[in-house]
Specification:
mainly alpha
C-alpha cells in the first residue's frame, strides 16, 4: 500500500527514482540477495574454473594434463555464460515482481521470481541473445568508427598542423579526445536506452521477444537524461564498492610482494581468485539497484505517457464489476397446434378459412326444417335437380 501511494500519484524525477530504488533495496535486501545469489555463484564458479585452467595450461606437462586443463577452461566458460544468462533472467523476473508490488501491493518473494522465470525462460533466453547480438554489432561499429577517426585525425594533423607550436597541439589533442569520448558516451547511452526496457516489456506486459524489443524502442525515446543519471549513479556505486574492496586486497598483496599492477600477469593464483571473488560480490550487491531503478523508470514512463497510475488507482479503489452470468433465452412459440386424439385423426385440428373478398360475415346456414328428408343421393343436396335439368 505505501509503495503504491508513494509512487503512483505523481511522476518521478531522476533523483526520486534513485532515492526510491535505494530505499526499496534497503527494505528488501535479503530477498534481493537470495534472488541474485544463485546465478551469481554459478558464474563465479565458472570464472574460477576458467582462471585455474588458463593459469595451469601448458604444452610441456603431458597430454593428459593439457586435456584436463582444456576441459576445465571449456567447462568454466560454459558455467560463466549460463550463470550470466540466469542472472539477467532473474533480474527480469524481479521486474515482474516489482510491478506487482507497486500495482497490487504483493510482497516481493524469491519463489515468485523463480516461478516467473521458469514460465518465460525461453523468451528471456531469446531476448538475451537479441541483446547480445545488438550490443556486439554496435560495439563492432563503434570500434570501426574509433579506428577510422584516429587514422583520419592523425593524417589531418600531420598535414595541416605540422608547424604548429606544441602547446597548441596539446590543447587540440585534449579537446578532440574529450569531445570524442563525450560523443561516444552519448551514442552509447542512446543505444542502451533503446534496449533497457526489454525485461520489463517481456515479463510485465507478457510480450514476445521481437515485440519486447519494439516496445522498449517505443518507451525509451525521450528519457535519455534519466537513463544517463541512473547509469552514472550505477557506475559510481560500482567503482566505489569495488575500490573499497580491492584497495585493502592490493595493500595486502603489495606487502607480501605481489605485483598489483592490473596490466601485469605475474600475480599469483590466489590474488586473481580473490579479485574475482570481490568483483562478483560487488555485482551481487549492486545489480538489484540497477534493476529497481530501471523498473521504476519503466513505470514512470508509463505513468507519464499512458496514465498507468490512474488505471492502477481505479483497479485498487473502485469495486470490481459484477460477474456477467449468461443464461440461454427460451423462446415460447405463440401457437401450439393441438395434438391428435389417441384414436386417430378427427379433423378438429384443421383451420377453415372463409375466402371472402368484401363481406367478412359467414354465409347464412339454412334452417333444418327447410331441408326435406330424402333417401336418394340426388335429393340430399339442394339444387341437384336443377343441375340434372
Amino acid at each position: 500500500m505505501e509503495a503504491f501511494n508513494a509512487f503512483a500519484l505523481e511522476p518521478l524525477s531522476s533523483g526520486d527514482i534513485i532515492d526510491r530504488a535505494v530505499r526499496l533495496y534497503r527494505r528488501h535486501f535479503l530477498v534481493l540477495l537470495r534472488i541474485v545469489a544463485g546465478p551469481s555463484l554459478v558464474a563465479y564458479a565458472g570464472g574460477i574454473m576458467y582462471t585455474i585452467g588458463v593459469r595451469n595450461f601448458s604444452l610441456e606437462r603431458g597430454d593428459a594434463r593439457m586435456l584436463m586443463m582444456l576441459l576445465l577452461v571449456l567447462a568454466g566458460m560454459t558455467l560463466y555464460i549460463v550463470g550470466k544468462i540466469a542472472f539477467f533472467a532473474v533480474l527480469g523476473g524481479t521486474a515482474r515482481s516489482l510491478a506487482a508490488y507497486f500495482a497490487a501491493g504483493e510482497p516481493i518473494r524469491a519463489r515468485d521470481v523463480f516461478r516467473a522465470v521458469r514460465s518465460r525462460f525461453w523468451q528471456l533466453l531469446g531476448a538475451t541473445m537479441v541483446v547480445v547480438v545488438l550490443l556486439m554489432s554496435v560495439a563492432s561499429f563503434l570500434y570501426g568508427m574509433v579506428v577510422f577517426g584516429i587514422i583520419l585525425y592523425v593524417l589531418l594533423t600531420g598535414l595541416v598542423l605540422a608547424g604548429a607550436p606544441w602547446w597548441f597541439l596539446g590543447v587540440m589533442h585534449v579537446t578532440t579526445g574529450v569531445a570524442s569520448a563525450a560523443g561516444l558516451l552519448v551514442l552509447f547511452l542512446f543505444i542502451y536506452s533503446r534496449i533497457v526496457f526489454i525485461p520489463q516489456a517481456l515479463m510485465v506486459e507478457g510480450k514476445g521477444v521481437i515485440a519486447s524489443v519494439m516496445r522498449s524502442f517505443e518507451l525509451a525515446g525521450r528519457d535519455l537524461r534519466k537513463i544517463a543519471a541512473i547509469f552514472a549513479f550505477q557506475m559510481y556505486m560500482a567503482w566505489s564498492l569495488l575500490l573499497l574492496l580491492i584497495i585493502p586486497l592490493g595493500w595486502y598483496g603489495y606487502i607480501n610482494g605481489v605485483d598489483v599492477n592490473p596490466l601485469g600477469g605475474a600475480a599469483p593464483l590466489w590474488y586473481n581468485i580473490a579479485q574475482q571473488t570481490l568483483g562478483q560480490a560487488s555485482e551481487i550487491l549492486l545489480a538489484p539497484i540497477a534493476m529497481l531503478s530501471f523498473t521504476l523508470l519503466y513505470l514512470d514512463v508509463r505513468v507519464r505517457r499512458e496514465g498507468l497510475d490512474v488505471e492502477i488507482l481505479a483497479d485498487r479503489r473502485l469495486p470490481p464489476p459484477p460477474p456477467i452470468v449468461w443464461t440461454p433465452r427460451v423462446v415460447q412459440p405463440s401457437f401450439v397446434p393441438p395434438m391428435p386424439a389417441a384414436g386417430g385423426f378427427d379433423g378438429s385440428g384443421l383451420i377453415r378459412l372463409n375466402l371472402h373478398t368484401d363481406d367478412t360475415t359467414p354465409p347464412a346456414q339454412p334452417h333444418p326444417e327447410a331441408i326435406p328428408a330424402s333417401t336418394s343421393d340426388s335429393e340430399s343436396i339442394p339444387g341437384r335437380e336443377d343441375d340434372q335439368e
